[in-house]
UniProtKB/TrEMBL annotation:
Protein name: Bifunctional protein HldE
Boundaries of every Cytidyltransferase-like domain copy: 31-138
Function comment: Catalyzes the ADP transfer from ATP to D-glycero-beta-D-manno-heptose 1-phosphate, yielding ADP-D-glycero-beta-D-manno-heptose.
Cellular component terms per the entry's GO annotation: cytosol
SUPFAM superfamilies per record: Nucleotidylyl transferase, Ribokinase-like
One example GO MF annotation: heptose-1-phosphate adenylyltransferase activity
Organism of origin: mine drainage metagenome
NCBIfam families: cyt_tran_rel
Pfam family, one: CTP_transf_like
Kinase is among the record's keywords: yes
Length: 510
């Protein structure tokens, strides 16, 4: 019987053990991966890894850092670790709480770092991690070894032989595989690299106050809470711009900040290196901040407080903003408008953008601060509209008609726009093109950590695709993949990166 528990080690304990092995002249090999479903390919890979040295250590990616698509990993890290520890050829197992193996390589300093043959060509690794990992192992005198044996895919095996998706999604993904959609999706994403994108809209500071409920106050009709910690994110158009920056090389943000409490330092620190910030300052008011009080138990939001002034800008800053919008719009391939209805986007701004943008993508959001006052019908034309179901129904004053009727017979006749996507949260999205008609795409995940910013991520990553002429069935697929990634991220702790998007799309269709 293999002593499984003795092989499962914490990183600091394993580092001492590896040092002890090496002091005795033993060669230590390190293999790293997800190992969600251990199969013959894994066994052959680990056997060859074991043969390269005297000791084999396996590190596996913690659940929070697995980028294999919605619903993954199927097996939690503890179960995956136990499975690997049960193999006689494995001497130690450790869970790696990072997106890359670099921290583990740095801590353990293995003599040999072992990866599969599919990583031998570094330029084909969309994550870029293999290059960083090779540099890390060589930095302390180690070397990288690529195993070359039978190659299987956990994602493919899970997709084809296990019911990890509900029937509707499973059938949809199978139909996509039959039409060989994957290479077209990957090509569509790669084609965006040279696009120049301008984003126009509201900056929002999203503050999360994490609290623990204590119970009802004995003297008041309210719940008392204990403050635990806080996080402050640059959201709104800033978060959207960072999503775009992952797939497009040149991005600019045109927005407005409040001089009273601008948060400009946080905003500039948050923006990706390839994003330029152009901001008009508004005196006497803060940059819009939305403070959400969040129960730490399951990250349930209790309530929120807005710190903002949503009255129209004064004449001078509005004229400056509109002039910038008109002049900048001419310089970019695509203009994305994230209109949160907080007083920035005036009728004059809309007119300037409609006149000067080569390709105009718009979202006019309905939220608790503007409900009924910020409808998509404020826009007379657009090349692409992306809104959610309630926003579409509210704009058309139609509560009960089928969504296809609302889109085709109402929305598309009211606004001059050939491409419309309506998102439906857990039910996916509906795409509509004036010539191609409708496509319905189911949601790719039912597991939600936080919905804040999911619609913005969908808009940000689909707008360049539509501008590039990508068919809307592919646009909707990539948008749903982006949304599935984003709802798994608390607040704006990170953006939807290109590598993560590619890995998710690939995992879904393997």
């Amino acid at each position: 019987m293999v002593n499984v528990s003795g092989k499962l080690m914490a990183p600091e304990d394993l580092a001492r053990q590896v040092a002890a092995w090496k002091s005795k002249g033993k060669t230590v090999a390190l293999a790293h991966g997800v190992f969600d479903l251990v199969h013959l390919g894994h066994l052959r890979h680990l056997q060859e890894a074991r043969n390269t040295g005297d000791v084999l250590v396996v590190s596996l990616t913690a659940d929070a850092f697995v980028n294999k698509g919605p619903g993954r990993p199927v097996f939690p890290a503890e179960a995956r670790a136990e499975m690997l520890a049960a193999l006689a050829i494995v001497d130690a197992v450790v869970i790696n709480h990072a997106a890359t193996a670099v921290p583990m390589i740095t801590a353990l300093k293995p003599d040999i770092y072992v990866k599969g043959i599919e990583y031998a060509e570094a330029d084909k690794d969309v994550t870029g991690k293999i290059t960083e990992e090779q540099e890390a192992v060589e930095a302390h005198g180690g070397r990288i070894h690529f195993t070359d044996d039978v190659v299987f895919s956990s994602s493919s095996l899970l997709n084809h032989h296990f019911d990890i998706y509900d029937p509707t999604l499973r059938n949809y993904l199978q139909s996509c595989r039959q039409t060989d959609m994957l290479p077209r999706l990957l090509q569509a994403i790669d084609n965006l690299a040279g696009m120049k994108v301008l984003l126009v809209g509201d900056t929002i500071i999203d503050e999360y106050q994490y609290v623990t409920p204590l119970g009802k106050s004995p003297k008041e009709n309210m719940i008392a809470t204990r403050f635990m910690e806080r996080e402050v994110f640059a959201g709104g158009i800033i978060a959207a711009a960072n999503h775009v920056a992952g797939v497009c090389a040149q991005v600019e943000v045109l927005t407005c900040l409040g001089q009273a409490d601008s948060h400009e330092k946080l905003i500039r620190q948050t923006l990706a290196p390839n994003v330029k910030l152009s901001a008009v300052m508004r005196s006497g008011v803060p940059t819009t901040r939305k403070c959400r009080f969040v129960d730490t138990g399951y990250y349930r939001k209790l309530f929120e407080t807005y710190y903002f002034d949503d009255s129209p800008l004064d004449e001078t800053p509005q004229a400056k903003f509109d002039h910038l919008a008109a002049s900048r719009a001419k310089q970019y391939d695509l203009v994305i408008v994230t209109d949160f209805g907080h007083g920035l986007i005036a009728p004059s701004t809309i007119a300037a953008l409609e006149k000067n943008a080569r390709f105009l993508a718009v979202n006019a959001q309905s939220n608790s601060a503007n409900h009924g006052y910020n409808l998509i019908t404020r826009y007379g034309r657009a090349d692409y509209i992306c809104i959610d179901g309630p926003e579409a129904r509210l704009a058309m004053g139609d509560k009960h008609s089928p969504m296809e009727t609302v889109i085709r017979d109402r929305l598309a006749t009211r606004i001059d726009c050939p491409n419309i996507v309506v998102t439906h949260g857990k039910n996916g999205c509906i795409t509509y093109n004036r010539d191609q008609g409708f496509t319905t795409i189911p949601a790719f995940t039912k597991t939600v950590v936080d919905t804040v910013g999911a619609g913005d991520a969908f808009l940000a990553l689909t707008s360049p695709l539509v501008a590039a002429g990508c068919p809307l069935d592919l646009v909707g697929f990539i948008g749903n993949a982006a949304g599935a990634i984003k709802v798994g991220i608390l607040g704006h702790r990170r953006s939807v990166e290109k590598s993560q998007l590619i890995k998710t799309v690939t995992a879904l269709l393997k």
